[in-house]
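Subject — a protein and its fold
Encoding — discrete vocabulary of local shapes:
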Amino acid sequence: MGSAGQLHMLYTCPFCWKVRGLLEHLDIAHERVQVNPMKTKKLPSAPEWKKVPVWVDSNDEVFVDSTPIMKHIDSVHNDGKLWASGDEERRDKWMEWVDLHMSKATIPILYGSLGSALKTTTRVSKLERFGFFSKRLYAWAGFPIMWGIIAKKRVKKDGRTPKKLWHDLLDEFLAEIGEKEFFGGNTPDLIDLAAFGYVRSISPYPQFSQIEEHEAGMKWYRAVESTLKV
């Protein structure tokens, strides 16, 4: 079986984890192209798009932006079954909710304190394909930038600790799921996989232990994880 395409990605990008989860759930053969974070201008996309993930299919067509990529892959390789819904208003509302709230919550938990920021950027510098000098520049110059400019403002504005924020988000998401195992019912759908991707993006870091303390959230997370073909 040949490759369905190439996923141009960063290992530590939450949006890339979303697409990876879908590809693994559907067991789609693909190539992962880990890019150098300092060289995103070389991505195979339109000149105005310089962010990962980028999906290049087997016909060399280029697709950008994680949620549209997921919808496209589901449509082409799964007849759109994961995006299909009897309640499209609910589906659209919660995909927007996941993309808005869970994506923004990844920065505070990873960079929300000076100690967290240092741990995270040191880990990132080991996981990503940096060059020799850019790796060291990122590890020691990157963390105070992330801490000072982005994460600190978000934590202060929200008023909750990053752990409390994540636990509240999981409470809200699981309340919508209700008595069923997944948002999609008995099996995960695209909303489950998108939410799972954001949570999974934190798993390479020590801060993931804060999310693991949410028992119900981890039960849902492990259930989705069990459907991946990895």
Observations:
- The mean pLDDT is 86.
- The longest strand covers residues 5-9.
- The chain has two domains: 5-78, 88-225.
- The beta strands are 5-9, 31-34, 54-57, 62-64.
